[in-house]
Amino acid sequence: MKKIGLKILVCFILFVSCSEEVIDDTGAGSVKGRVVDSQTFEPIKNARISSSPATNTYFTDDNGDFIFDKIVVGKYSFQAQKEGYTAKFEAASVNKNSTTQIVFELEISTANNKPPAIPVLTAPGDNAKSQALKLNLTWTATDQESDVLTYVVTVKNGTTDVVTTYPDLKTATLELSGLSYSTKYYWQVSASDGINPPTNSVTKTFTTLAFPNPRFLYIKKVNSNNVIYTADELGNELQLTSSEVNSYRPRKNLQIKKIAYISSDGSQNQIYTMNPDGSGVFKVTNSIPVAGFNMEHVNYCWSTNGSQLIYPNFDKLYRINSNGGGLIQLFKTPNGKFISECDWSQDGSKIVLKVNDISGYNVEIYVINTSGTVLYEVLSGFNGAVSGLNISVDNEKIVYTRDVSGYESSNYRRMDSRIFVYNHTTNTSTELDIEKPTGYNDLDVKFSPNEADVIFVNTSNDGISIKNIQTASLTQTDSRVTLFSGGSMPEWK
């Protein structure tokens, strides 16, 4: 019996020992505090305040204040809770007959916060046409928690591939200005509540107004590539091809309203066509590419009705349908010289060819018929470079440029290139007297649409200076005018 009584006593002692709390019951004190938003420091009312060890539970008033009065002296942990905020703990020591101050800075809870709904693009409508060069993009977006939303709009130019970003927008609208004519744009909106990852809209497109009366085509160097531009007579210009691709020698056909051009395709150069606004790109040549001694000086030509094109491949001349079919060899040079340039008469009966050796020299210009028979010779027996080739509507005149200095070099530098007009009736070539500045070259010449003028490239003979596209009258000496600066390979239709 004695042993049993001893065991009970031990357990009682252990129970009492385990229930003891670290509180000094020798006095009491107070705890006062405030609960505020961690970002705005605005008071948070109706926040629940509790303590451990447990005393009472209080809620903050309209000023975010609370007070624990007459609680036993000791060490406590106080907790502040409010729906939508992350609970926070603050340690405090309560001292006899004194007041301890606590401030809770609560952070907004994101655990259950929902991201914004996917933005809906409202205007312009998807694939809208003929849009103004200044317009408003609009969209709608909502958020379940009514969080304040900010937007990022991304706009891509479909011709140049340039992407422009408009960040930190506060309203669901954006005014765009300075857009380009005849250009397809892609746009997307991203909405953010500052808590969740942004949500992205679908991508929509719109196309701007057609470019007004673009009579001219030419190329400019952009990012080391040739890029095709079109322009009107007032000098307003529009980029047609991407600056990421080498595209050059634009040739327009008015009958089918298409622009042909040469573009790099790996190690080869092929002929493509596109619409006047740069859309609808189609690859015409495939198995036999355009080729010659130097692609910067190789040209090709449309038929008048736009159904066919002719182009050189070294010593051969080919004809191909504009839809890519019907490829045939029209002509092969009898002496192995390369064909560099060709022009097809408006009536389709004659083709003018410029041929040269592998270095671009020993030039001959002659006219053949579509059966490949040589009809007559325009030029031969001169040293130096020749470039630019165009036959008149009546087949009586051929305009070209020739370096009268006779200079020849491995880099094909020209020293004094001038414009000449060949007359078939008299079988003579006459230099066009348009007061070319000394030290400059006139290159890549063509007749104007009414054949009263010529269009050509003028540049310093140093080979590195800027190129300018100019026009001049066939009959007036002092008539040289610069149309476009920094351009070359002009076309005037």
Provide a descriptive summary of the structure in words.
The longest helix is centred in the first third of the chain and has 17 residues, at 2-18. It is rod-shaped, with a radius of gyration of 41 Å. With 493 residues, the protein is mainly beta. Strands 1, 2, 3, 4, 5 and 6 form a 6-stranded mixed beta sheet that branches. It has one helix spanning 2-18, and strands at 23-37, 48-52, 58-59, 65-81, 88-94, 99-106, 120-123, 128-131, 135-140, 150-157, 163-169, 173-176, 184-192, 199-200, 204-208, 216-222, 225-231, 237-239, 247-253, 258-265, 268-274, 282-283, 301-302, 308-313, 316-321, 328-332, 338-344, 350-356, 364-369, 374-379, 386-391, 397-403, 417-423, 428-431, 440-447, 453-460, 467-473, 481-485, 488-492. It folds into 3 domains: 21-106, Sandwich (Immunoglobulin-like); 120-208, Immunoglobulin-like (Sandwich); 216-492, Neuraminidase, CATH 2.120.10.30.
Write the layout of secondary structure elements.
Blueprint: H1 2-18, E1 23-37, E2 48-52, E3 58-59, E4 65-81, E5 88-94, E6 99-106, E7 120-123, E8 128-131, E9 135-140, E10 150-157, E11 163-169, E12 173-176, E13 184-192, E14 199-200, E15 204-208, E16 216-222, E17 225-231, E18 237-239, E19 247-253, E20 258-265, E21 268-274, E22 282-283, E23 301-302, E24 308-313, E25 316-321, E26 328-332, E27 338-344, E28 350-356, E29 364-369, E30 374-379, E31 386-391, E32 397-403, E33 417-423, E34 428-431, E35 440-447, E36 453-460, E37 467-473, E38 481-485, E39 488-492
Parallel strand pairs: 1-6, 8-15
Antiparallel strand pairs: 1-4, 2-3, 2-4, 4-5, 7-9, 9-12, 10-11, 10-13, 13-14, 13-15, 16-17, 16-39, 17-18, 19-20, 20-21, 21-22, 23-24, 24-25, 25-26, 27-28, 28-29, 29-30, 31-32, 32-33, 33-34, 35-36, 36-37, 37-38
